[in-house]
Amino acid sequence: MRHLLVYIQKLHRFAGIQLYLNMCGMMLNSVLAGISVVLLIPLLNLLNLTGTLSNSSVISSIAKPLQQLPSSAQLPAVLALYVVLLITQATLERFISQRNIQMEQRFIRHIRTDMYEAMLEANWPFFLRKRKSDLTNIMTTELPRVSYGIFTSLQLVMNLVYTVVQIGLAIWLSYQLTALVLICGLLLVFVTRKFVFASRSLGDEMTSLMQTYMAGMTEHFNGIKDIKSNRTEQQHALWFRNLTKQMERNVVHFSRVQSISQYYYKVAAGVFIVLFVYIATAFVHVQPSMLLLIVVIFSRLWPKFASLQAGWENIAQILPACKALLDLHTESEQAREFNLKQLSVDIDSKWRMWHGIECRDISYQYDTRFATYALRHIHLHIQANSMVAIVGKSGAGKSTLIDLLIGLIEPQQGEILIDGVPIQHCAAQFRRMVSYVSQDPFLFHLTLRENLRMGAPDASEEKLWEALRFSAAHEFVKKLPQGLDTVIGDRGVRLSGGERQRIVLARAILRNPSVLILDEATSALDSENEVHIQQALERIRGTMTIIVIAHRLSTIRNADQVIVLDQGTIVQQGSYQQLAQASDGLFSHLLKHQELEVVHH
Ligand SMILES: Nc1ncnc2c1ncn2[C@@H]1O[C@H](COP(=O)(O)OP(=O)(O)OP(=O)(O)O)[C@@H](O)[C@H]1O
């Protein structure tokens, strides 16, 4: 419940006076509904149905103003008032429901944006800990459940107010019978409380089923090529059938819980009405006309009791979604690395790195609970505008070192300085000046032009082609039927791996970075295109710092400095020639191995 209250407080802060106006409107509506019931009294009186009761103080105090009118005008006046009341109530209800929807949608947008921006502001370790599908699930499934819960609870409050008003009215008419109804109501709440607990645990189950569903869908469609080429469709279909069966059971179970509790209320309503009539006539001796009024009031009140119960159950069912959303929000806030709104103000777009990057005795562990280090005691200096290559076997720590150098992760020990400034003080600024091309180049489902302009929105057409020429991509782009206007498929799948790499490389160079990082960025290229890119890198050499991770050692022949990593430590460092000549070193071992591979091919 605590988690839901946090969101209701947020709504309170967000909507302010609007929330109270809407609630006042809803209350006014309940009062109008109550008045329309009270109007039945003069109506019954005029129709001579109140009999001896016309002398009662309650009836006469309501009927008195009417007696001022001529007797022939009394019935039309009451009927007209009744119609006016009904129209006012319906108009008010329509107006309030419109205002509520507007407020609801604005608030949903607010919590959606708030959550999305909080995640964008979170640091990289936050994303390392999270499954992407869980984040998608929260944004697509849990968030609407939360907003539904918030407004269901507001509705619940209003129903409570309405119920209280109607109870007050009933007490005024007959406190004995009202007390009896309330006791019956409380008894029913006690009996049906187990349905609220059941709804809560079904809500828990639904949250975890939806997480599994979303994770499964993301994985299966990402790995669809593997699934199809290895003919594992059947296992996946079986998994899917089982999971969806559980989801179906969960929803059916929840609706069964709700229908049982509603059934209890309906049966109880019938039994109680019979009991009231019997007790009222046999023991309390209430006049039939008063009894009729009370039956009218309770026949309106009882469905409200039933809807209060349904409201509780709905809220109990969405509480796990509130907890999941709030936990994620708190976690992303704790992992915040910058303020999105402040970012563009703080960044100096002309900033360049002049001296270089220095690593002083850095060590890094992905999981501090274990004694395994991804990197250990790294001392390193990368001169500004030089070309540095990082080599090593798979798992040696090359990508981890890059993540540290650009401040995506922080070392547990040691420090990294950019032009003498600790990276944690200038990471946002520094990363703006870095172009990073990863092992798995990512393209958005947009046109080639939009993809290229992602990092440089103002780049001219000429600059785009220049960048494409740099990455040896201009010829294949020219051949595309719509050239730069070609929409590239989901993650750019309509392009080959090598073509994708060249487009991402063009995008990286368009930003005119101060530091260009190529993490296996040319691994999918044929040797002809790789030579083109090497020549292009030679041309820009000296104008920016270039850091290259490469398995193909032929590509780093011209590097100023080669760093050899093994099991998280630097085992060799120097120029290509120096390292190649050190025959007992790891580098010449790697070199020999690759020469052998070339001969075999
Ligand atoms: N997110 C992670 N969580 C836990 N351990 C990780 C994570 N990423 C990498 N590691 C571990 O850290 C070590 C270094 O990994 P890293 O990816 O930096 O190596 P690499 O040299 O770039 O390898 P490759 O050439 O295969 O990409 C490896 O032992 C790897 O298992």
From TrEMBL:
Residues 357-592 form the ABC transporter domain. One of its GO terms (cellular component) is plasma membrane. GO terms for molecular function: ABC-type transporter activity; ATP binding; ATP hydrolysis activity; ATPase-coupled lipid transmembrane transporter activity. Keywords: ATP-binding, Membrane, Nucleotide-binding, Transmembrane, Transmembrane helix. Residues 23-317 form the ABC transmembrane type-1 domain. It is found in: Cell membrane. It is a multi-pass membrane protein. The keyword GTP-binding does not apply. This is ATP-binding cassette subfamily C protein. It comes from Paenibacillus cellulosilyticus.
